[in-house]
Structure formats: C-alpha cells, structure tokens
Amino acid sequence: MPLVTTTAGDLFVMRRGTTGAPLVFVHGAGGSGRHWGRLFALLPPTVQLIAVDLPGHGRSPLAGPITIERYAAQIAALHQALALPPALIIGHSMGGAIALQLAITTPQIVAGLGLIGSAARLRVAPALLDGLAGDEATRQATITTLVTWLFSPAADPTLFAEARAEYAALDPAILLADFQACDGFDVRNRLGDIHCPALVITGSDDRLTPPKLGAELASGLGVPHHLLANVGHMPMLEAPDQLSELLREWLATLA
Questions:
Q1: How far is Cα 130 from Cα 145, in angstroms, rounded to an integer?
Q2: Strands 110-116 and 225-228
Q3: Helix or strand holding residue 204 (H, E)
Q4: Which of 90, 126, 200, 225 sits most deeply, having the most CB atoms within 10 A of its CB?
Q5: What are 196-238's pLDDT values in tens digits?
Q6: How far is the C-alpha of 124 from the C-alpha of 68, rounded, in Å?
Q7: Predicted structure pTM score
C-alpha cells in the first residue's frame, strides 16, 4: 500500500492506510517524518501508519514557540483533525518525550507508547547547546560532531552524510530550540501516571541517550528494556529490520 501525503492540523503528514489501529510516528530533534520510511516498508500492511513533520521541520510550517508541551499539543490537534481512535504513539528521542507528554496530558488519545532512543529526562551537553548557538563556523563544526554521535561506528557511511545535510539545511534557530526543549524535559516524577502499554528500545551504542537512560525509563514504566546490539541513536535508519521485528512482536501482544 503506497504512502500518501496530506496536511492536517497544520502539519505535513505521510500516511499509509486509513483503517486498523493507527500508529503515529514522531521524529526527534532536527529530524523529519522521512526518518520512518525504511521502517514503514517493513511493517504489516494491516496497520495504519502516520508519520508527521513537526512544525518548522520537513514540509510543516513553523507555528509558535518550540517546547515539548507545545509539540505534544500539536500532535493532539493532528489526532483530532484526522479523527483517529486512540493511537499508538511511536516517538524517537525528542519524539519520545512528546509521546510521554501526550500520555500524561491527553491519555485518552494514547493507546500505547513506543519509545525509541528516548528517556524521561533528556539532558543535552552544554557544549552542544553552546556550539549550536555560536557563529556559522562553530555551528557547522558542532553539527559535524553531533552527526558522529548519532550512529554506531559500523553504520552505513551514507547515513552520516544524509544526517549532516538535514541538520545543515534546517533553520539554525529551530535546531537549537529543539535541543533546548529536550534539555528542559524531565517527567521522571510523572512516569507513575502513565498506565498504557509501552515499548522501550535503545541502541547499545547510543551516545545521546545511553542505554542506562533507556533502562531507567523502562523501569519507571514497569516494562522490559529492549537493547539493540551494535546500533546507535537512530535505529529506524541504522537497523530497521531489528526495530520492525520488535514492533511487530509488540503489536502482536497488543492484538
């Protein structure tokens, strides 16, 4: 079944299917919905897949200030605009923070959480924030460093080049604001308020949200922690086969 594109709730959306339990995929800081393409090709045709470009990313216009809470509200508005039943929210990194925020503030629209390379607290290295706020040369050097942190050393080299091009093309203010929003995110004391099913996945080589943080998130939610061996921060790009297998198994338990 082909992907179709549309705009809903002021967000650009890529969608496959209109029936079945909906899975809403939310990308991480500086990313876009394109990150989910490899994964979509591996998931069952019987599930409804929706990938969104957050405001100011990909093909969605910027709308208002950038915070995790506001991003969550915009995903909730998208859910309403598409008239979806409660959905499984699959979030990567910052997208996982948005998914957690949704489960806390609008639990009625969340049937479950898929949290990939994410954590209940997303501290960002001060050097990274300072570098992204610096002059052009400093910013470009910081982006180069950031990209080296995204993937396992064994990852396909083209992934590094694609990530660097994507970050470099994004409005610098939006990229910085994304990471600032992550740095201010902390719901460790709210995990007990989340009662929906959850799947927590971390790459063993993740340098941005190390496995320790994934394990803490899983423990706080009372679910197992799944570790992908020799995989970095971007499993949906680096190891879509392994990630799709875990998602398929999880979907089967929910069915």
A1: 13
A2: unpaired
A3: none
A4: 90
A5: 999 999 999 999 999 999 999 999 999 999 999 999 999 999 9
A6: 14
A7: 0.96
